[in-house]
């Protein structure tokens, strides 16, 4: 329970995920007003992020709500996953790989149903860290404190010994509220320096009660 721990987000941290404009392109193709796709699909996106809908059901809802045929649904979802998966942040991934055996390593990610399979195939995050906690598998998203509890409990570490890295400020603040140390990802250099400082500090030890 006293081990030093580093927990990272995926999108925007381990993956570089700029917006590709795919939703707007589909709205133009379907002659839909700006914002229509997300308006029609909002509850489906939410359900997918907490695992209350299957991939097949997502496809069915895309077809029904946007009036797409089977081939169009496959193309639509391919565009979604292209933006979602982005490209590997190789510098940070390589650094984290070098930490194996020096501290406990985990991932805590707001995700979408189907993410584990695709990210495992593409990036092998399952080989990078000891545990991956996906929102679509636990039914809870950051910044809910239960998500951070799931991550620290799963790694059997104390929250105060965890450094959490995320590119979203509200999630960083939530991690601190959950008792973790936290760092807002802005670039690799500052993030790597922050992780190194965390490891140099080592784990905290519980206060001992006075004897007698």
UniProtKB/TrEMBL annotation:
One of its GO terms (molecular function) is hydrolase activity. Gene3D superfamilies: HAD superfamily/HAD-like, Putative phosphatase, domain 2. Keywords: Hydrolase. Pfam families: Hydrolase (PF00702). This is Hydrolase.
